[in-house]
Amino acid sequence: APDAPLFVVFNPGSGRNDAALTQAAIEAGCRDAGRPLTLLTLDHAHPLPATIERAVRGALDAGGIVVAAGGDGTINAVAQQAVARGCAFGVLPQGTFNYFSRAHGLPAPVDEALAMLLAGQPRAVQVGEVNGRIFLVNASLGLYARLLEERETYKARYGRSRSVAMGAALLTLLKGFRLWDLQVVDDGEPRRLRTPTLFVGNNPLQFEQVGVAEADSIEQ
Hints:
The chain is of the alpha/beta class. The protein has eight helices and ten strands. The chain has helices at residues 19-33, 48-62, 72-85, 99-103, 110-119, 143-158, 162-174, 204-209, and strands spanning 6-10, 37-41, 65-70, 88-93, 128-130, 133-135, 138-142, 180-186, 189-195, 197-201. The strands form four sheets. The protein has a four-stranded parallel β-sheet, with helices on both faces. Strands 5-6 form a two-stranded antiparallel ribbon. α2 packs across α3.
């Protein structure tokens, strides 16, 4: 609905933007458009799962939209609950890489993304599922998951930038890694694999970045 209230889960630690300016832009944009806004900011007192639950519950009760304002990790976490409970879902990209938003043509500046969200029509997007868990960009275990976890640790210490992300990845690789014995069912046929990581992707930009030739075959 054109007047549907927004319930925004805002991660002020995402990306390199000034959190106060981002929050002000969201509040001003909704005020100017006459759209009801409930802004739920993540912090130590308001952790991610409980905050998302509150936002989704509020959106469902009010016939509104739950919106993730953050990076791909925040967006994916909000999407999991939104999809599971059939709640309308929107995105204000605020991360470093923004794979999801870039693949769907969402602008990075918060005022532009908010204007598109306020004026746009809902459309279906492709989601992935592994073992019952919804994901938007990728699902992984092993080395790649460790790369992401340690990257966040380095970003929290040294700042959020692509150079920090790349340096963190190099340091993780230099530490060495274990091999996993996996069984994967492909078209009903079980296959055993020995690999340092399992990566299930749902984003053409990310596949293209790592050099997977089939990137264009991923539908969004």
